[in-house]
Write a structure and sequence with these properties.
The complex is a heterodimer. Chain A is mostly beta strands. Chain A has strands at 4-7, 10-13, 19-25, 33-38, 45-49, 53-54, 62-67, 70-75, 84-90, 97-98, 102-106. By secondary structure, chain B is an all-beta fold. Chain B has no helices and eleven strands. The chains are: A mainly beta, B mainly beta.
Chain lengths: 107, 122
C-alpha cells in the first residue's frame, strides 16, 4: 500500500503567519492527492483536490502544489479558525491511504 | 442538499458484530460510490472499503477482508457497513463518505457523514 508521510506532526503558529505542510508518498501517485481539514468532533472537509485545485467554498488562502511523490499545502495567512488537523489523502490506488495528520495550534 | 446521515453510537463486546447505517439524500443515490473510513480515538484516518450503490459491488481493504461487509438498500437510499469479530482496537468513529466523481469509485470524498462511534469493551 502507498504510505503518506506528513511533516510536521504538530505546529504552533501565530495568526497571519504563512504555514506549509508537506506530504510525501512512498511511490508516484501522479496528481491523485487531496487535502482535508478536520476540527475536533467534526468530519473531515475537503480543502484542495488533485494537488492544486481549489474546492468550492474554501477560502483562497489555502493552496496546494507538488507532483509525483512530494506535495505541499500552504496557508497564506493563518486565521484563528484554521486551528485544526490537516490530512493528505491519495486516491491513486486501493487501499486508499491518508497521512498521519498535522495538527495546527494557534498561539 | 447532499446529506449522509449515520446511525447512532453503539457499544459491543469483543467477538460481537455491529452494523452501521448511512442514509443518503439530496442526490441520485445510485450514481455515487460510498466509502467507509474510520478514526480511532486521537488517531488518523483509515480506509475500510467502498461500495457501488448501483450494483452492490464492493472493494475492501485487505486487512478487513473477512470481517467487513458493505451492503446497500436502494429503496431507502441507505448504505450499511457491518464489522464482525470485534476487538478492542476496533473502537473508533466510523464515517461514510461519498466519492466526488459520479459513477466512479476513485477520487476524493466530497461529502461525509457525521460519524458513528462504536466502542468495543467487555
Amino acid at each position: 500500500e502507498i504510505v503518506l508521510t506528513q511533516s510536521p506532526d504538530f505546529q504552533s503558529v501565530t495568526p497571519e503567519e504563512k504555514v506549509t505542510i508537506t506530504c510525501r508518498a512512498s511511490e508516484n501517485i501522479g496528481s491523485n492527492l487531496h487535502w482535508y481539514q478536520q476540527k475536533p468532533d467534526q468530519s473531515p472537509k475537503v480543502l484542495i483536490k488533485y494537488v492544486s485545485q481549489s474546492f468550492s467554498g474554501v477560502p483562497s488562502r489555502f493552496s496546494g502544489s507538488g507532483s509525483g511523490t512530494d506535495f505541499t499545502l500552504t496557508i497564506k495567512s493563518l486565521e484563528v479558525e484554521d486551528a485544526a488537523t490537516y490530512y493528505c489523502h491519495q486516491s491513486s490506488s486501493f487501499p486508499y491511504t491518508f497521512g498521519q495528520g498535522t495538527k495546527l495550534e494557534i498561539k | 442538499q447532499v446529506q449522509l446521515v449515520q446511525s447512532g453510537t453503539e457499544v459491543r463486546k469483543p467477538g460481537a458484530s455491529v452494523k452501521v447505517s448511512c442514509k443518503a439524500s439530496g442526490y441520485t443515490f445510485t450514481t455515487y460510490y460510498v466509502h467507509w473510513v474510520r478514526q480511532a480515538p486521537g488517531q488518523g484516518l483509515e480506509w475500510l472499503g467502498v461500495i457501488d450503490p448501483s450494483g452492490g459491488g464492493t472493494t475492501y481493504a485487505q486487512r478487513f477482508r473477512g470481517r467487513v461487509t458493505m451492503t446497500r438498500d436502494t429503496s431507502t437510499t441507505t448504505v450499511y457497513m457491518e464489522l464482525s469479530s470485534l476487538r478492542s482496537d476496533d473502537t473508533a468513529v466510523y464515517y461514510c463518505a461519498r466519492t466526488a466523481n459520479s459513477g466512479s469509485s476513485t477520487g476524493l470524498f466530497d461529502y461525509w457523514g457525521q460519524g458513528t462511534l462504536f466502542t468495543v469493551s467487555s
